[in-house]
Amino acid sequence: MKKLSLAMVVLMMLPFLNASFSIAEDERPVVTALLQTSQLPAAENSVLQEICERTQIDFQPLVVEGSALEERYNTLAAAGMLPDIILRGGKTEALELVENGVVLALDDLLAEYGPDIVQNRGMFFEQSAAYIDGKLYGILLNAFSTGNALMVRQDWLDAVGKEVPTTIDEFYDVLVAFTKNDPDGNGKDDTIGLGVTMNFATTIEFLFGMYGVPYGVQYLENGEVKPYFMHPNYLEAVSFIRKLYEERLIEPDFLTIPNMSCLEKLWNGTYGFYYGAPSGTTNNWYPGRYTEDPLPVMTYTWIEGPTGSAGSAMVIDSSFLAITANAKHPDAAMRLLNFLCSEEGNQLAYAGIEGKHWEWNSEGGITYLGEYTDSSKQRDDGVYCYWPTLRYNGMQDQLLTETTQYGYQIANEHNCAYVDLPYLPEAADYISFNPEEMFSALLLTQGDMQEEYDRYIQDYLENGGEQWIQEATEIYTAQ
């Protein structure tokens, strides 16, 4: 009998050896997820394809824009069709998900399939809103770079002969100059001091924070926890915003303008100030989104109010990623999350494919290539669309510009005090009061603002507000 050489045996086995490392696409485990992003990627894009190839998982994300996330989640939940991986937030919801058996405990899955997550985020497991009775049901998504800061155009300050403002009076003075004194030097009346939109309320939070009002959350007054709109300085903050609005020193359509339209004005050189996450304003959007030539020169500042307060409430992000109980392949779902939390996966999700989308430069940063210098082209091809910040202190933080780092320094040093609650009172479920509606009415009223405000607050207290305050105070004191 003729013997086969070792080399021949190896050659004959190569197809089988390769098959063990590359699963046929129709045999890969399917993992679904509901994701939120600022710009929808193309259905077929190279980043998604690369994730699938490197993990040998058929990753099928349902990606929605902005506020559509909650609507889509509720629709899927009502139909009993939740995807394998969901993004949720808050202790109250975490408890409901666990009590109703919607999500899985992740401890065993992490031990077997999540080594990178354990190494990178393990120190935060017990801080997760979904850490319940000694078990972890959701991976906390707290970020290394946290908070918001006020961007100001340094080149415009130079053009109008002003210093970086840090007080309300200085801020108002610069707003007037940015709006009236042609800071871009084009001879047109086409600039606005401050870009804000109620469709992304983050942009307006610091205007309340200057007066010590923690917009969107709660504060402590004489031992009671109360909603921000009952703060004794609330009406003073609204009066200042109304003054800016009436003098057209802020975006004149800020009550209705879509967030994307507001951002486009920022990128096109309309606004001199903008409040938001520095990682967007001077990092991810810069320079690709900005259209001016030369590019804008920006820095950051804080505006201190009469009580010494500045910034906005540094709310602890309670968002977490969970794997649902109806997932067919929970092991594959955890392997996918682990990949995206790894250094390799984080790099791919954040910046795209090295050599196609970007390359390292001599300064230790990255340079986007060809058409991908345009961030909209990046998003279209899947860059920054699939949990780019799952890794704590990942590529997104390591590549922050010096200006962006300064912005986060300010965000951490100047923020408005507030009361953090592990979960919200049950009364919140049936109160119909709309604080944004009250704010709009106060901004536009032709009557007595104090009287109108008092009527709104009385209505709130008589229709569940008193109960909310009582429950919130009990939750706070029980901590």
UniProtKB/TrEMBL annotation:
Record's signal peptide: 1-24
Q: Which InterPro entries match?
A: Bact_solute-bd_prot1, SBP
The record, for SUPFAM superfamilies, names: Periplasmic binding protein-like II
| Organism whose genome encodes this protein | Candidatus Ornithocaccomicrobium faecavium
Per UniProt, the keywords (alphabetical) are: Cell membrane, Lipoprotein, Membrane, Palmitate, Signal
Name of the protein in question: Extracellular solute-binding protein
Return the Pfam families for the record.
SBP_bac_1
Source organism superkingdom: Bacteria
| Source taxonomy | Bacteria, Bacillati, Bacillota, Clostridia, Candidatus Ornithocaccomicrobium
Q: Does the keyword Lipoprotein apply?
A: yes
